[in-house]
């Protein structure tokens, strides 16, 4: 439930996590609790939704400087998602903004090619810095 997810996020942050990933419960269904739990921590929500398929229900927030991500279920079965586009920047310590996420709309559709050539394709070209 929402309180358990919130407590889990807060516990990981208190233990010094450098990034927190939450999966599942990210759609707009009333039973999906993850976005509300992330918000209940007091995290600054940068985006809830990204112009990327797969991965449109991606959430990015920061809790005391720690990236807290809400990852939609597609990260479990799609070869490439919004998560693949933002992870390198986050791992490099770059604080992403809502403008960075909006730029993902340029090249935001993964075509699901039979032979994946990511990152040597158009997917995510809006993330280039």
Topology:
Layout (H helix, E strand, L loop, with lengths): L1 H13 L5 E4 L10 H7 L3 E5 L10 E5 L2 E6 L10 H10 L6 H6 L26
Parallel strand pairs: 1-4
Antiparallel strand pairs: 2-3, 3-4
Helix pairs in contact: 1-2
Cα shape: globular
* Estimated radius of gyration: 14 Å
* Amount of helix: 25-40%
Biggest sheet strand line-up: 1-4-3-2
CATH superfamily: MoaB/Mog-like domain
How many strands appear in the DSSP assignment?
4
Distance between the termini: 38 Å
CATH topology: Molybdenum Cofactor Biosythetic Enzyme, Chain A
* Sheet with the most strands, sense and barrel status: 4 strands, mixed
As residue ranges, the low-confidence spans are: none
Look at the helices and sheets and give the structural class.
alpha+beta
Q: Give the CATH level 1 class.
A: Alpha Beta
| Average of the residue pLDDT scores | 94
Can you tell me the number of structural domains?
A: 1
Outline:
With 129 residues, the chain is of the alpha+beta class. It has four helices and four strands.
Care to describe what's here?
The structure is a single chain. The chain has 129 residues and is α+β, with helices and mostly antiparallel strands. The protein has a single domain (2-127), classed as MoaB/Mog-like domain (Molybdenum Cofactor Biosythetic Enzyme, Chain A). 28% of the residues lie in helices and 16% in strands. It has 4 helices and 4 strands, in the order H-E-H-E-E-E-H-H. The protein has helices at 2-14, 34-40, 82-91, 98-103, and strands at residues 20-23, 44-48, 59-63, 66-71. It has a 4-stranded mixed sheet, with helices on one face. Helix 1 packs across helix 2 (34-40). It is globular and about 40 Å long. The model has no long low-confidence stretch (mean pLDDT 94).
């Amino acid at each position: 439930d929402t309180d358990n997810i919130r407590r889990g996020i807060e516990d990981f942050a208190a233990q010094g996590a450098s990034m927190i990933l939450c999966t599942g419960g990210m759609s707009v269904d009333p039973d999906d609790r993850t976005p509300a739990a992330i918000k209940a921590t007091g995290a600054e929500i940068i985006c809830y939704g990204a112009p990327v398929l797969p991965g449109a229900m991606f959430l990015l927030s920061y809790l005391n400087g720690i990236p807290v991500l809400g990852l939609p279920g597609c990260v479990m079965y799609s070869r490439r998602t919004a998560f693949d586009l933002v992870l390198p920047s986050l791992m490099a310590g770059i604080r992403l903004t809502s403008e960075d996420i909006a730029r993902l709309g340029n090249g935001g559709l993964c075509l699901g090619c039979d032979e994946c050539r990511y990152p040597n394709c158009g997917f995510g070209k809006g993330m280039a810095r």
